[in-house]
């Protein structure tokens, strides 16, 4: 069974290696741009896509290029989601799409931006599936100042993209040299990623429990302009 799994992973590795660097970078940029602005992050976990892009990258230049493409995609997605929130946020949240997302998810993402330390929590939200797909729209809906939002969002996006791309690149390089170790390498990556996400979940939960009272009525007023 382990042999069959190893062969499957080897085939996936060969498939990724066959994709051109420009194709991988362009695809990642497009996916991350749509994730924040069109909420497709609720359906497609971008974390896995970034990891795969890292695996397909060979050498420091390609790794750096994929990171730049990923961060650029995050910027476009975050800015687009913010603008949608400013223009249609309330209607979107109360409409069919908002009901499909679910009240608990909206409320959790909303609390990420409340309180005096909301910026830090907003940055680390990129490591939380679903939550970071909603925060751009909510930031616009709540009139969070754009510069503050995009500053913290890009800090988190840069860390998030770099983390997954580097892990993918290191794992991909090791796998190409030692294809007999694909299964344990995959398990090691899963443990590292899972442990990181769990630690960040606990970090944000602790912050949210200390600052729940700042959720909607906190630091953002309707007097703030777009910029």
Automatic annotation (TrEMBL):
Top-level taxon in the UniProt lineage: Bacteria
Coiled coil: none
Record-annotated membrane-spanning stretches: 12-31, 63-84, 149-175, 181-200
Keywords on record: Cell membrane, Membrane, Transmembrane, Transmembrane helix
Gene Ontology CC terms: plasma membrane
Topology with respect to the bilayer: Multi-pass membrane protein
Family annotation (InterPro entries): DedA_domain (IPR051311), VTT_dom (IPR032816)
Subcellular location: Cell membrane
Ranges for domain VTT: 45-169
Protein family according to the UniProt entry: Belongs to the DedA family.
PANTHER family: ALKALINE PHOSPHATASE LIKE PROTEIN, UNDECAPRENYL PHOSPHATE TRANSPORTER A
Protein name, as recorded: VTT domain-containing protein
Native organism: Planobispora siamensis
